[in-house]
Amino acid sequence: MKHATDEPVLLASDVSFAYGSGPTVLHNINLALHAGGAIGIVGESGSGKSTLAGLLVGMSTPTSGSVTVHGRPWKSVRRRDPQRLAVQMVFQNPYTALNPRLTILNTVAEVFQVSEKSSKAESLERARDMLSQVGLTGSVLNKRPEDLSGGQCQRVGIARALAAKPSVIVADEPTSALDVSVQAQILNQLRDLREEQDIGLILISHDLNVVSYLTDSAIVMQHGKVVEQGPTAQLLNAPAHSYTQNLVDSVF
Amino acid sequence: MTNTLLEASELAIEIDGRQLVSSVNFSVGKGSAVGIVGETGSGKSLTCRAVAGSLSTIGGRISAGNLKLNGKDLTDPKAYAKLYGRIIGLVPQNSLSALNPLMRIGTHLIETIKILGTGGGIGTKDRAIDLLARVGLHKPEHVMKQYPHQLSGGMRQRVMIALAIAGRPELLIADEPTTALDVSVQKDIIELLGQLTREENMALILVSHDLGVVSAATENVAVMYSGMVVEYGPTKELLQNPRHPYTKALLAARPSLEHTGRLIGIPGTPATPDAWPTGCRFAPRCQFVQDSCLQNVPTLQSVGSSHQVACYRADEIEILDNAGEV
């Protein structure tokens, strides 16, 4: 584990959220991610995990409270502000998360063209580098998502996120659509990113085995509230809340 | 075995003339539970369809081998008319969308019970309520009046199980019954399946991509890889002493609360039907591969009283493992 600096990279303070004029679906969430840290968000369908992810990456704005990135609230980060790229997302379904009409090389090159105004040739070159970092090389680079396996697609998703040079990756169930043998490759990839590049990780998952493998602290959510929060190992070995206990008991 | 209910031997399945599954061997004893484990495209669902008699709906057929239920040949599609629902019950894979959204839960059950004629002496409606109670649904009278969208995923899955057991089948096939469900619900459903099979003396075929799920509910398990059964044996023994390199790798690739050391992934991706290797289908990803593996496809060989492995090097691998060289 890297030494955590004082100022959190990503900070949610007292965040509540409602969709439109609907009921409040997130209640007073607090979360602080330091550089190179990893936090797991655990809970069942409808507990608010993915809504929280949307707030953390700045796709939606809290009804009250705030989310800050490197100390700046998302509200003040305008669309073309480079800081917008600091938090990147890796999605649950790798097929629908990629543009079906672009080759995977172009998918990643596009990020460099937009984020750094790199020339086409330079972007392609850098995209090649980036994709080889996630183990994709050769003819596969000219394929489109539909011609790739789920694991390959998810690696493209990770490469696309990395191309934006993020400080944090928010991964929403990144391996739940993958087979076990492929899942291990992706989990190792995410683990290496933290250790080698100090990229922080927010991992949303219902799989406690995966959470225990990748994170050092975790929050447990139920009905939009955090019911337990703490170091992952402690949370899983000695759950204090009955709901956490129930989740731990359900692990095969 | 005299109490064998279902026996598959050297079963092969083809779709549109292409052989997708072969060398499937397993048997299910009366009242016992067998798991079929494998990844996407390994052929586990096709094997299920073969047993359930629904291959023809996707243009498939059993192209070789034997499939016998109570000694009766199932490779003849006509054999199914009288079996379905009565002898074989099926909980399908996409069961969450399998209920008619415009029909109350009670209507689903009553229709099924009428068709199967299994109301018994207690009347169709009472039998329906009894079935819902049996699958652990609270206030079954109330659930009878509800529509599918008013139920949670776990509740809908329970209804599907109630429908599958309405005909008091001897064999229940559950194809990935918990994939779309939350973890705690998943555990409940697996426990329910175990409980029902014990209470009703029903046999169970449980299909899953997760060895953990299968280990919780079955006595025997068949591991499938790229359309073939590569290892078959008692679940406990197979998990503790896996003999096929694929089974070993699958276990090592699975994160668990107990082991937080680095996972060992399996390099590459599974072979697909249009590019099946000549020899062992796992060979391109296998750390123990040698020349003989590339020549011919290994067949299942006994390595214990009821444990079978399709690997040329199964014996050597155990020795290498024990010597700590792997």
Q: Which key terms come to mind for this protein?
A:
heterodimer; A: 252 residues; alpha/beta; globular; B: 326 residues; Rossmann fold; 8-stranded mixed sheet; 4-stranded antiparallel sheet; 31% helix
Question: Could you characterize what this model shows?
Answer:
The complex is a heterodimer of chains A (252) and B (326). With 252 residues, chain A is of the alpha/beta class. Chain A is built from eight helices and ten strands. In chain A, the strands form two sheets. Chain A has a six-stranded mixed sheet with strand order 6-7-8-3-9-10, sandwiched between helices. In chain A, a hairpin with a 2-residue loop joins strand 4 and strand 5 (72-73). In chain A, helix 2 packs across helix 3, helix 3 crosses helix 4 (150-163) and helix 4 (150-163) runs parallel beside helix 5. The model of chain A has no long low-confidence stretch (mean pLDDT 91). Chain B is α/β, with parallel strands linked by helices and 326 residues long. Chain B has two domains: 4-87 and 169-322, Rossmann fold, CATH 3.40.50.300; 99-168, no CATH class. Helices cover 31% and strands 22% of the residues of chain B. Chain B contains eleven helices and twelve strands. In chain B, strands 6-7-8-3-9-10-12-11 form an eight-stranded mixed sheet, sandwiched between helices. Chain B has a four-stranded antiparallel sheet with strand order 2-1-4-5, covered by helices on one side.
